[in-house]
Structure formats: structure tokens, C-alpha cells
Amino acid sequence: MAHPQFKRILLKLSGEALMGAQGFGISPEVLKYVAEEVRSIFDLGVEIAIVVGGGNIFRGIAASSYNMDRVSADKMGMLATVINSLALQDALEERGIVTRVQTAISMHEVAEPYMLRRAIRHLEKGRVVLFAAGTGNPYFTTDTAAVLRAKETHAEILLKATKVDGVYDSDPVKNKNAAFIKKITYREVLEKRLQVMDMTAISLAMDNQLPLVVFNLRTKGNIRKFVCGEDIGTRIIS
Predict the structure, then answer these.
(1) Does residue 67 belong to any structural domain of this protein?
(2) What is the domain-level CATH number for residue 14?
(3) How many secondary structure helices (H) and strands (E) does the chain include?
(4) How far apart are CA 45 and CA 206, in angstroms?
(5) Predicted TM-score of the model (pTM)
């Protein structure tokens, strides 16, 4: 049996990852796939926290570009992350995984309010915790929320799931000659303005020495491979 190299991890999923090929909303097939990938490391005894974006439903920064008030737009984006988290919670619980959704915006009838000590206790009891509604504040992305929650819950590493194999020196979707980068420092990411995560998230991770790996979610088994010590994706280090 494979042995995990980490006791506690935080997995960051984009909202776009959940829509699959349909272009909008939530794909049941993708939900099932993600839940099975999470189950593969849950069965190893790894404590798992998850932050999901909301871009498949509503992206605040995009809405603000056509004259919607940025604060209102960001609040709508936070609500989109709650919808995604509830959908993923349902998919996980169908596979026998006990979960809790905690939100940075109070909505007691839907989910628990974010409470650090309770979240850590859930993780210690073997429950998967989904952190929704970002940081609860406008102008901060779910990337920043993922770094913040990872540090607060003492996660050993942040796993950033993407649709490409890792970090490239330019957008591999637009540039077929983009060079893959196996290992890079946070400072280099900032200096080269690589689109890994938003700059606030990268700065926060660098200042707090949080290890980060960027990997391809679409390659089945990648999460388990990395957790068990295989060299997957791109490592970003202090």
C-alpha cells in the first residue's frame, strides 16, 4: 500500500474545473471525477481541506469590468463558491466521505460559519472540510483564501489543481512553444508575473513559506501520486 507523505493538505479547485466541457455551470461527470480523486487520498488517511472558486457561475472581477460595483460583484462571486462547495459536498458524501462546508459569510441554514478551531477539529476527526465564500471580503480572490486557510489550518502544502501540467513561462494554451518549469521560487513567479495565482496569494504564500504544487487535475491519479511522493507538476518554493 502507498504511504502518504503529508498528513494534512489543502486542495484548491477553480470553479471552471467543475464545468467540464459544457462552458457554464456544474458538470455531474466532473463532480463525480473530482470526488473520486479526493476519495483516493482520503482512503490513505490524509486530512483534506478544499477551497473551490466560483468562476463557472459568476466571476466578480469580470462583472466589475462592465460597471457593476466591485463590492457587489465580489459578494455574488462568493455566493457562487458556496453553490460549488455544496455540490462537491454532495458528491463526496455519496462516496461515504463525511464533510463539512464552512462559509466566510454567515448562512446558518446552508452551512457552518467559518470557525478555525471547529475546522481543525473536523479535520482531526477525518472529515473533509470545504471552505466557501472566499475570505468573506471583496477584492480578495479564492486563491488568496486558499493560502490563508492553508496557513490557518496548518496544512503542510497547498495543491493548486489546473487544466495544464504545471507552470509554464507563458500561456501553453496560446503558445505551443511555452516552456514547462519544474521548480520555481515565489519571487521568480512575482518578477515574471506568471499567471499561477493572483499576486496577493503568491505574496502571502511567499511571506509565510507555504509550499505549493501546481498540477493537472485532468490526469487521473495525479493527486494520489503526488501525495504519495511522486514528482508531479511544478513545485513553487520560498
Answers:
(1) yes
(2) 3.40.1160.10
(3) 9, 11
(4) 28
(5) 0.94
